[in-house]
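A reminder from the course coordinator: this example appears on the midterm review sheet, so study it carefully.

Given structure:
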């Protein structure tokens, strides 16, 4: 690990700058839930790469631990700023739903193509935390978001290297890779955020019957904040790398990709 959660000075949080921002509360809490449940998905992914020991070992020994640290660091931030919220109760309900979605059915059959898919996911998370950093002027949150985003970029580099190594053997064509990237880009706005937000609202309101329309509306509200602060150039650059395009081709597809990413990631 490049940093420890113990390095974060939660006592220095300027609560007055962030506590009134309810949308930021939902963004941070939902992110803390998804990161805290990442060990379940990491285990599935490590088993998927059992015949690639270096990748499986890195997933278990580094990626999983760092993702869990992200969840813990975000949880501590939420509990410091909004101590009245029962984080544990909401997470227990969230995980009961989330773990059912963590199965091998969501993995690509090709080892190389799954690594390409992971590049898309890491692009999304790195961009998300960069957007959170830009969305707030609270110093501790900005520092924490920057640390997590840097981790996600570093994770991306590992997945990208494993993709290159595996694809050197599999020889998956560029069109197949493009298909995976496009599909995962369109799926990046998946059910996980809505599962998290629904269970946050359940704890807040003390009841289970939260209308789906209200969850969708809240998700859209949160997405608007991220969209306004999305580092689009960084996002495009990371998405294109697995295609290994010539610089001239990258320039040609840049503008339509900006429109596609803006629409797909946060539609």
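Designed residues:
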């Amino acid at each position: 690990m490049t940093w420890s959660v113990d390095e974060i000075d939660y006592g220095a949080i300027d609560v007055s700058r962030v506590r009134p921002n309810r949308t930021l509360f939902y963004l941070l809490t939902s992110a803390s839930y998804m990161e805290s449940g990442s060990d379940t998905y990491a285990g599935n992914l490590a088993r998927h790469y059992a015949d690639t020991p270096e990748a499986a070992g890195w997933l278990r020994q580094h990626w999983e631990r760092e993702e869990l640290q992200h969840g813990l660091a975000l949880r501590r931030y939420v509990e410091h700023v909004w101590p009245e919220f029962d984080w544990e109760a909401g997470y227990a309900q969230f995980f009961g739903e989330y773990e059912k979605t963590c199965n091998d059915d969501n993995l690509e059959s090709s080892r190389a193509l799954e690594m390409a898919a992971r590049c898309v996911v890491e692009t999304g998370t790195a961009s998300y935390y960069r957007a959170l950093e830009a969305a707030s002027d609270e110093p501790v949150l900005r520092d924490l978001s920057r640390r997590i985003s840097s981790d996600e970029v570093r994770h991306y580099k590992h997945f990208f290297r494993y993709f290159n190594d595996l694809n050197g053997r599999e020889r998956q064509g560029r069109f197949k890779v493009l298909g995976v990237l496009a599909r995962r880009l369109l799926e990046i706005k998946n059910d996980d955020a809505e599962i998290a937000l629904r269970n946050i609202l359940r704890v807040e309101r003390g009841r289970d019957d939260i209308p789906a329309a209200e969850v969708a509306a809240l998700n859209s509200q949160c997405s608007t904040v991220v969209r306004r602060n999305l580092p689009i150039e960084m996002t495009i650059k990371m998405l294109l790398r697995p295609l290994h395009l010539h610089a001239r081709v990258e320039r040609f597809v840049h503008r339509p990709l900006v429109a596609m990413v803006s629409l797909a990631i946060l539609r």
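The domain at 16-265 is CATH 1.10.620 (Ribonucleotide Reductase, subunit A). The chain has a mean pLDDT of 91.
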